[in-house]
Amino acid sequence: MAGGRRRRRLHLSKIYSYTCGKSSFQEDHSNIGGPGFSRVVYCNEPGSPAAERRNYAGNYVRSTKYTVASFFPKSLFEQFRRVANFYFLVTGILSLTDLSPYDPVSALLPLAFVIAATMVKEGIEDWRRKQQDIEVNNRKVKVHDGNGIFRQEEWRYLRVGDIVRVEKDEFFPADLLLLSSSYEDSICYVETMNLDGETNLKVKQGLETTSSLLNEDSDFKDFRAVVRCEDPNVNLYMFVGSLELEEERFPLSIQQILLRDSKLRNTEYVYGAVVFTGHDTKVMQNSTEPPSKRSRIERKMDKIIYLMFGLIFLMSFVGSIIFGVETRQDKLTNGRTERWYLKPDDSVIFFDPERAPMAAIYHFFTAMMLYGYFIPISLYVSIEIVKILQSVFINRDIHMYYEETDKPAQARTSDLNEELGMVDTILSDKTGTLTCNSMEFIKCSIAGTAYGRGITEVERAMAVRSGGSPLVNEDLDVVVDRFAPKVKGFNFVDERVVNGNWVRQPEAAVLQKFFRLLAVCHTAIPETDEETGNVSYEAESPDEAAFVVAARELGFEFFNRTQNGIFFRELDLVTGKKVERLYRLLNVLEFNSSRKRMSVIVRDDDGKLLLLSKGADNVMFERLAKNGRQFEAKTQEHVNQYADAGLRTLILAYREVDENEYIEFNKSFNEAKSSVSEDREALIDELTDKMERDLILLGATAVEDKLQNGVPECIDKLAQAGIKIWVLTGDKMETAINIGFASSLLRQEMKQIIINLETTHIKSLEKSGIKDEIELASRESVVKQIEEGKALLAASGASSEAFALIIDGKSLTYALEDEIKKTFLDLATGCASVICCRSSPKQKALVTRLVKSGTGKTTLAIGDGANDVGMLQEADIGIGISGVEGMQAVMSSDISIAQFRYLERLLLVHGHWCYSRISSMICYFFYKNITFGVTVFLYEAYTSFSAQPAYNDWFLSSFNVFFSSFPVIALGVFDQDVSARFCYKFPLLYQEGVQNILFSWKRIIGWMFNGFISALAIFFICKESLSHQLFDPNGKTAGHEILGGLMYTCVVWVVNLQMAFSISYFTWVQHIVIWGSVALWYIFLMIYGAMAPSFSTDAYMVFIEALAPAPSYWLTTLFVMIFALIPYFVYKSVQMRFFPKYHQMIQWIRYEGHSNDPEFVEMVRQRSIRPTTVGYTARRAASVRRSGRFHDQIHKDLVDF
Questions:
Q1: Model confidence pLDDT, tens digit, residues 14-31
Q2: 747 appears as a binding residue in the annotation
Q3: Of these residues, 429, 494, 705, 953, which one is catalytic?
Q4: Catalytic residue at 1098?
Q5: Which helix (H) or strand (E) holds 667?
Q6: Per DSSP, what are the bridge partners of residue 273?
Q7: Residue 78 and residue 123: Cα distance in Å, rounded?
Q8: Which pTM was predicted?
Q9: What's the domain count of the chain?
Q10: 828, 932, 957, 1140: most buried, per Cβ within 10 A?
């Protein structure tokens, strides 16, 4: 391809009705040069003085949160936004004053350690983002150096005005103006999957004037042009500008713009001029910061912190009053105060009876510092460490790895792990999420005869609920082997048609025309593998690819496309041999959403002119000629049956075109294409509409977008877990309902509440076109239908009757209005299933917001396309499916998975574990800190609130960091209250998270009370054991340092033994950290005590010389452990035996060996917090219920239990 020589000489603009080769100056172009349209690009002169004066942004992009300069200030600001960290910063600063009850280093060092650890974690995460930026910015592209030569250069060095050459399958490095391509008329194919999630190829075309001038590399040596256009903006689908070339001015539209991050496909190369770079590009303008999401547990944890602040304030306030009173009453007696040992004469304010009020105020600040140990300084950093490790386990779970695409699960944020265990409602997209978005040709109707013996999953569901299927009878009874090797896009089985047998059919000529149409009427491009000779296709949509593949598999193989020809091989009816045929392609009448059809005009090898067309049934049947309706009734019947089976249908028709008629059409068509008037599009539509009339019906196609593997089973298990599932889809109501049946979201016994605007009155108003009347009548109709639905729900009362709500997009518009949405939500939440059809992306996001805010429960949205981004960002948790619709949903999600079925393990196993672990972890954190803090408080109260710490300074600061944090981190990472197998077996266990049983205020206060009881036992037993006896054989009594050392030892033992009692699943890691924490205390005490007295202060040799030799030290420690833990042990035994939580019932099953007893397991499983109304299990239960055995059996089981 040296020198840019063109290999492919296709002049596609002659057959397409492109709007780009010639275009008109629309009204918007008059704004060029004004506000918002001030950008000027000097093409091929990026370094000129005029260009440099503009000072446009470079092409370097940055997605990191920090820079080298901003990391420390911004990260520190983020850390001290947390109220606990800010509190410790204030107390740390106060510790530098004389008010401090401890050494300032011992207060500031742990805070510095915690802040540094969190900043390191932030830095590592941001460095990973930096690595991704480096990879993108260092990609290379060919850039014109000014001498007709293109050299490789990194993306980051691109400037506005540079000319670049992009090769096939490369990404565009910036927003480019398409100048020319390997096609003679500057056509190129672009994949925009990274921008809008669509996999179909888009066609772009440069201006004719640049296409004719710029054919190879050397042509750019003297090329100069100026582009004047709009300023950078977010609109992906609009561009306004003009090109000034050789003193002429040409209008530019989005059709000439190649957007950054889209990919060049099926085109050897393109040349482009850089218009927008870096953060000015449209894709970067559209990139927004993801919304800040915090879990409910984290928000509740903040409330606990505030509660602890209130408690500290109250204790400090009360203690200060008592201290002030005590100080005022501390009068001189016989020349000395009663508390002479506090040395009041040496203090400026403290302990001075004459200045008691000020002493009380100063004591308040000192007490606020001293009682700060009620708040765990390491809580936040420990939780972050735990969540990161939990995310690693999610990412590496082999059970959520999809081998076919080599995609594991990926937790893109670790902040929401515990929310996965609290999901109340799932809002799911359909296409690509529940289904594969991989179309398969499965059935067709030709000449009034239905072909295709395959049975869709929807039909299987229909057969189950109705005892048979309209398309399954004694003549069509073959079920496709789902495990047989298949061709992608082709799942058609019918011996009457395959292997050339179609020639024996009575209407063989019609079948031949039908398959020829599939092979010719498309815009696909074939690619032949040079080694194997196999032909593959690049098509604009999955449906179109399926049609071309089907034609190939049925003997009509499209294998080559040229400038004006389509080549295919077929079986000759006369000779019975394969022959190559050439159809000359004259015009392509493109598909769009308003036309709902696509046609080609061709000349066959007999010289006949043919118009071949395919489109939606509602536009095609009305275009049939009187003599072309021979098979209409049967075809319509089959199309309805295909829709019932969840299939997507198209009608195929053709007609012969008269030579004179075509000459006239082609002349008018070319004139319309070349027109620069504003009504150009209307002219083209009028001409094509006139040509696509009087068609002769051939038949209909039916393609299936199959359910993903495991979807019904996953939905059933989630429904058993009590999770509500809503489907938000853009599909038709009939298709969505049938997919609902196939996936077990709907069942036959359900009463369907359908809300739509398909009434006669509304339709007649729509024909009149009076907008206000239509809106008023529509709103009233929707309100009436919602009220009727609520009445149905109320009438059913407490019965087990299940309802399904199905609403279309038009009705949803009114249902989401402020005055109506509360009533709509009440109806929806009372139904077992909710399906919203024809939903726009905005409506998906609004429904998600309504459910989230209206119910106050955790919502999870799951989708795979760009149209799901709003929904994913609005929900508490956004799950992106890394499927075939690009990465937009994944990039906007919190967690990505490859298949919908992995949601079962993600929620029921990882979600439950994370919720249980984080809940227990936080409760234990406050337990241990209250145990520790209350001993500090009691000792200070015992010393008449004199602000005397119970422990050495470094004992105080080390407790949270070294002697109690490691076991709680291990709990958060490794503990399992129930194994994964039992999470699946008893899905209702998940309701513990939905109802927040494990992190309720009752449980939190219970753990705090347990800490208070433990602290009382520790303080009073230790104090009393040393009060009335000599401590050692030398006759010495126990001093402050001995009591403090004894109490601290007991605290370390008690909180770690409490952890051992709380763990459900021991691993070697737990043993190491629990017993290691205790051992670390003794090692620390010996090493610290051996240091110089100026550093170790009152801990100098306290263990070796005082504590260790004394038998009472060891006996007291033993007694304290027993008495402090007995209350918890008794409570837990009674609660576990007589009032077990659901997970404890399952633990009993495991411990008592009932896990293989089906009757006992079923009895526990039926202790339902919420009846299951969705899924095939509910369908079976309804069947048993109808037989009259269900309630009796459950009653018997519960009585036995």
A1: 445 544 455 555 545 556
A2: no
A3: 429
A4: no
A5: helix 659-674
A6: 163, 177
A7: 12
A8: 0.74
A9: 4
A10: 932
